[in-house]
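Practice problem: predict the structure.
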Amino acid sequence: MNIKEAESRIKYLREQIIYNSKLYYENDAPAISDYEYDMMFRELGDLEAEFPELDSPTSPTKRVGGRALDKFEKFTHNVQMGSLTDVFSYDELEDFISKTDSILGGAEYSVEPKIDGLSVSLIYENGKFVRGATRGDGFVGEDVTENLKTVKTIPLELNEALPYLCVRGEVYMPRAVFEQINKVREEEGLALFANPRNAAAGSLRQLDPKVAASRRLAIFVFNLQEGDIYTDGRKPKTHLETLARLKELGFTVLPETVKAKGFDAVSEHVRYLGDKRPELSFDMDGAVIKVNDLAGRRTVGEGTSTPKWAVAYKYPPEEKKTKLLSIDIQVGRTGVLTPAANLEPVRLAGTTVSRATLHNINFITERDIRIGDAVVVRKAGEIIPEILESVKSERDGTEQVFVMPSVCPSCGHPVVRDECGDGAAIRCVYAGCPAQNARGIVHFASKGAMNIDGLGPQVVELLLSNGKIKDIADLYTLKIEDIETLDRMGRKSAENLVNAISESKDRGLERLLYALGVRQVGEVAAESIARKMRTIETCMNASVEDFTAIEDIGEITAMALVEFFRDERSVELIHRLTELGVKTDATAEEREETLAGLTFVLTGTLPTMTRDEASALIKQAGGKVSGSVSKKTSYVVAGEEAGSKLTKANELGVTVLDEDGLMRLLGK
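Answer:
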């Protein structure tokens, strides 16, 4: 093939791939098979490699992800990417409409879905996509251009070569993609994504664009930030006119958006969107109501941090009714028997729910929840499915009262009621319980503990059932040939797992103490103990009084620690781990505790570090990290897309820091 033939073929392939991508990703109406699409994509890549002079930065092949980055560069937005005032009731919405109408003498509004994703800006020069960044704090975000190139609904080249354009959109993970990815992760024994929004945010902040490309993100564009959308000097007069023009240019704009006048019409579409949420292919957590007329917006004006011409109506947590089919008992790593509900599958807050926690027998008894009941389910914090109540009026007499088992379903040994706390916990105390052993190994390998990548529940079960391991220490004796012949493993997977296990040896006492699964000892307590004790030998010889002298360690925790370190099986396990090369000394240097006595809450996505990394810095400086905001909170560290925790901090008058403010507090 000569260069002229190659040029013609490349042009044809690019047009076909772009056209079919649009059919697949935007219209949900593919015209060719995945195989045909993949073959065209491969041929285009081969031709571009053979004729590099014909390559183009806007070619569809650039969407598969380039080289991995060391970090994201900061990006300063020319136009602030602000947030909106939230309203939580129709009375508040009516108040907003009334005030705005009084200023403008009656107004026209756009009512549109509030997509639950990650806000970004996209910049085009001469019609070509050149830069993309996260919202950050509204003024400074992160340059995630390479990852955004992998989002197939972002046009790399506009339909017209406008000199300069900056638009704002919401990157999200489609529900079907979210469920498929979680299904694969579950099969591979990996931690599941909590919800599509978190999955989208994490995917867009991957340092390797190839990982971002594999997550199949999408985008809806909803605002013109700056630039002219016409080449003849015309200026759009309304928001909806702007969206229509952006669609002509090749952007995927917000669906289900309407024009409405007056509270009745506005609230009707807000209700319509709320009712339609379960049917949509994307998650939405509210509806956005904006003054449609752009001149009218200037008249209404801006507040200190939010515009006065728009609000976001936030829907209450979605609740659904379904049927409680049965109750299973799960045996935790500490032997606690936890009841879990099996439900008729129901679509709830973006995912299909078929399981829900029932906490303990007291929870079931107090709410009189019976097998066969119609029950009301919601997601706590839009993440964890929980049963609110049973619908007693729908009972027909066939429902069954649930009784906790008297023996452990895993090992068959008698269970006892734990007298600590409220006495609601039923516990298996048999040391050889298989379920406790398996869950203990999974916990040992988890992210907050020894962080052994690839050692999830299914792999642990595979190793146990095939006699490759019996306990935690056996992990460090595994060889590649022990694993590669097991079902669904293979040579490469075996190599990766053995390497990950070997790397975990150097996690140090902080991680090891938590990984050992001592009752009452969480990550924070483990770090406090390690910071003071420094070696596991010191822990093994410590008394209850020695442990209670450590901040955050109460008498119950201290007693659990002494009991654990006096147990012969624990002593033997620790000796084996030490002999196998596991580091049992504290890794962090003793340092001045500049944040001692201060409690921090982290929310949102920080610009240059994960929340886990920020938590580690705070804890190393003697501070505490909490999951909820209260009057006792010293600081809230807020990043991009901070949610209800930031709202509560403002309500309580808690000082809010950004990442730079935290680093200054740390003296960095």
